[in-house]
Amino acid sequence: MKKKIFVFLFDGFSDWEISYVTPEINKSGAHELVYFSKNGGPVLSMGGLPVTPSVSLKDFGAEDVDMLILPGGTAWEKGDNDELGELTRELFESGKPVAGICAATVFLGQLGILNNLKHTSNDLNYLKGIAQQYCGEENYQHSFAAADKNVITACGIAPVEFAREIFRAIGLFDGKDLEKWFQLFKNGVWSE
User: What CATH number does residue 28 fall under?
Assistant: First the structure.
């Protein structure tokens, strides 16, 4: 049975931040991508791309999810996606991978998930300024992406690094092939 990777979509989600992740996972055939929105209805990405998710948040539970991917978007900064709190906490506490990029790191900070793990965001002051509950400053990494235990975080300008950490977490490529993929998409270097 394929492991299910759930990707949350909402009005204004940053479509480019998952654009390296989803095609590789989809074409591998090893995992099933499940796109969902709060109510299962169509959403419009920040780039204006209309997308119709497969399911709504109420159609599944944490037991159905093998990994959760949260793209960025200003809705996180406004608290518009708080309905995901219970699911995200449950996945985190059960040891299932949770990956957030850009403003989705604010959401993880608000939930207290980042307090005791190495993590990154768009900037430490950005994270502290929006996620008032956040108190993990000593674990903040000034890097494009960070992975610790079952949590992956990345800043908004690092969709390639974000994808690499997700691929590493799910074992999509072996080490050598993962580095080749990264060099191709990050630096335009192709090696045999």
Answer: 3.40.50.880
